[in-house]
Specification:
This protein is mainly α. It has a domain of 52 residues. The radius of gyration is 51 Å and the shape is elongated.
């Protein structure tokens, strides 16, 4: 690297840093133990010796082509995924349909078709129809005959 600099003056610390960054990682680990105060020429000699002793093994990732069993397995997974997707879409459609039918409050309301009180079919109120002379809550108009004063009750039921 000093030869590449040629006649130009370059700071040795910068040159050392540039050279150091271009070394293999395993060599950098060893040389970093020597410290930064060592001269560049000494570090270069040491790096050459380390490179002679330690041969970096280069690994290459390779991939075997897919075999018939691999392709069959992947196709099986793809079919299962397609089936699950179809089932999920069907389920979402069903849920949306059910939710669309349940628009409004989620509690049961009393039917409006029947009135709360029974319909009168006669002139006599429901209480007198059910309890007769013992009725206590007569609702007007009621044609039930008033009890006579001889009656021992609590007074008129009206």
């Amino acid at each position: 690297m000093k030869q590449l600099v040629g006649p130009y003056k370059l700071d040795e610390a910068l040159l050392k840093q540039m050279w150091f960054n271009r070394l293999p990682r395993s060599v950098r680990k060893i040389l970093s133990a020597l410290g930064k105060s060592s001269p560049l020429d000494d570090l270069a000699d040491m790096a050459d010796k380390v490179m002679e002793v330690c041969h970096d093994n280069h690994y290459t990732n390779t991939m075997q082509p897919y075999g018939a069993a691999d392709v069959s397995y992947l196709n099986s997974i793809q079919r299962q995924l397609s089936q699950l997707t179809s089932q999920l879409e069907s389920l979402q459609t069903t849920v949306a349909t059910v939710q669309a039918r349940q628009v409004g409050p989620q509690f049961r309301q009393r039917s409006r078709s029947r009135p709360r009180s029974p319909k009168r079919t006669s002139e006599i109120c429901w209480y007198h129809t059910k309890f007769g002379t013992k009725a206590r809550r007569c609702t007007r108009p009621c044609a039930f005959p008033s009890p006579s004063t001889d009656n021992q009750g609590n007074g008129p039921a009206r």
